[in-house]
Each structure stands twice: as C-alpha cells, then as structure tokens.
Write a structure and sequence with these properties.
Layout (H helix, E strand, L loop, with lengths): L7 E5 L6 H10 L10 E4 L5 E8 L3 E6 L2 H8 L33
Parallel strand pairs: 1-4
Antiparallel strand pairs: 2-3, 3-4
C-alpha cells in the first residue's frame, strides 16, 4: 500500500487556518480555486460542506471554502506571518469584507 494512502485527514474551518496551510493553499492555487477544484460532501450532521484540498507528506487538509478564505488568499503576503509559528491559528486574521448596498434579503 502506498504511504500517501495512510495520511491523516483534517477538515479545517477558516477559524483554524494556520500560516502553513494558507501558504500551501496559495502555492497550489496561485490564481484562486475554480468550481471544479472544490470537493463537496455531507458531514456527520448531514450538512453539505465544500472544501479545497491541500496536502503535506503526512496530512491531507480539506479547507472549507468561504469568502473569507478567497479574500485572504488574494491578499496573501508571506511577510505578514514571519513573526508567528507556522501552526498558529491566531496568526490568520479575518479579512474585512466589503458590504454591498442593496444586498439585504431580509423581509
């Protein structure tokens, strides 16, 4: 059996995103990800989850797709994380998302 088949699998929400995983994402998807690169599945709560996949030698990460993730990847600068540990989820801060006028669906 191939050693890669034995990798640990981890689902990562934006709140748990580390500089290491963010760097892997930007390296694999330098121009962002497309719909055909998104993996969809139902979780244990029977909810649909959409993720993109990146891997290290021993771990396969499924990172949940979100607007915050896309904006953070677009604005990625390795220097922003040089003072943090590569596994520190506190290092990746939520981006400020633009508020669109007329986009209120409340009735």
């Amino acid at each position: 059996m191939n050693k890669k088949d034995n990798r640990k699998r981890v689902i990562v929400d934006f709140k748990k995103l580390t500089p290491e995983i963010l760097a892997l994402l930007v390296e694999k998807f330098p121009d962002g990800y497309d719909d055909d690169q998104i993996i969809s599945f139902k979780n244990a709560k029977n909810e649909w989850v959409e993720c993109v996949e990146v891997s290290t030698e021993d771990t396969k990460y499924l990172v949940k797709v979100s607007t915050k993730l896309a904006v953070t990847m677009e604005n990625y600068d390795e220097d922003d994380y040089e003072d943090y540990d590569s596994n520190d989820p506190e290092a990746v801060q939520e981006p400020e998302l633009p508020v669109e006028d007329g986009d209120n669906d409340e009735d």
